Amino acid sequence: MKIVSIVGNRPQFVKAAPLSRALRRRVTEVLVHSGQHYDPELADLFFDELGVPQPDHALEVGSGSPVTQLAVMLERLEPLLLAEQPDMVLVYGDTTTTLAGALAAAKLGIPIGHVEAGLRSFDKSMPEEQNRVVTDHLSALLMCPTDTAVANLAREGITAGVHQVGDVMLDASRMFAPAAAARPGPRALGLEPGGYLLVTVHRAAATDTPEALASLAEVLEAIDEPAVFPVHPRTRHRLASAGLWERLEAHPTLRLSPPVGYLDFTALLLGARAVVTDSGGVQKEAYFNGIPCVTLRDTTEWVETVEGGFNTLTGMDAGKVRAALADVSMPAERPHYYGDGRACERIADAVAASLPA
Ligand code: UDP
Predict the structure, then answer these.
(1) How many Å lie between the centroid of ligand 1 and the Cα of residue 353?
(2) Which position among 137, 202, 237, 251 bears the catalytic label?
(3) What is the pLDDT of residues 273-299, one digit of tens each?
(4) To the nearest 5 percent, what fractions of the chain are helix, strand and coil?
(5) Would you say the CB of residue 146 lies under 6 angstroms from ligand 1?
(6) Which uninterrupted H or E stretch holds 260?
(7) Which ligand 1 atom is nearest residue 266's CA?
(8) DSSP string covering 300-356, please?
(9) Which domains does the chain have, with CATH numbers?
(10) Which pLDDT score, from 0 to 100, does residue 293 have?
(11) Is 57 a catalytic residue?
């Protein structure tokens, strides 16, 4: 039994860390790295510190528009999949890498397993939503993190091959909690635990137009308390091109830094008063760790966190962000929306059971 797993982005490396381990106890896994994220601080660092197995194949797609990246990945995946002849192709999440893996496998008649299936923001202008919907409709095995995801698939007529397994990011969070707790954390940056915000921004909607960048700068400039912002290379590049980087560097309480590794990021998260983000994964990690979240989007796939009062959607609106930050709190009870931290075992079981003996 052989599977080809395809990863290529920071959150996929985080998810592959616990999942590859679980899969390799059950099946032969060939790991492909698309190269969609290639900056060392978004890629190599994660393989090294999280113990993700070294990729067997590197597509080295590099930078380019999503359409060009998709085309290059498809071209490079075809001979690779024909040579490897896997019983299944496993894809993660909702990126261009996910879509490329799913399309290449579908065209070659190879069954697809989708980790984090069934998530919907119901905003089809989001590249991630397009990638998720297409991938789910091509997949034979759909590993859903939540009941909401299962219900979303049922509404689209997908009920076969659907498994509610819990969230692999919770597995990762639990697996690396001791190592993260041992990192220097906020004090090393001169920040008081409980006395600062942790900020991340990287989505296309926040960074791809001059108007969006101006709104982002307005939100960041409205922050009037200590805050640390490990800046994604794309965001940094776009802010610099728009002439906004120096203005933000001059902000008296905002500390801009390069992106940090998962363990340092988790250590910073654990000490934060609140998180301000447009990330999907970070919304959940805030919830796992009992840190209030303010999400700079109008929609989220992680609706449970909003409905439960753990997460506030503000869009990229400085006034709403300020109001949300003045008001954040954590409800006393945190339901187990995302399972029990054993999603990877269930996925490995489902994959092994679906493959020919
Ligand atoms: N992350 C990290 N360092 C950072 C920012 C984020 O390790 O400087 C981690 C974070 O803990 C989470 C993942 O990257 O596990 C989220 O990735 P991202 O926000 O890029 O993608 P999304 O979840 O929005 O798809």
Answers:
(1) 31
(2) 202
(3) 999 999 999 999 999 999 999 999 999
(4) 45, 15, 40
(5) no
(6) none
(7) 11
(8) -S-HHHHHTTSEEE--S-HHHHHHHHHH----S----TT-SS-HHHHHHHHHHHHS-
(9) 2-167+339-354 (3.40.50.2000), 176-326 (3.40.50.2000)
(10) 98
(11) no
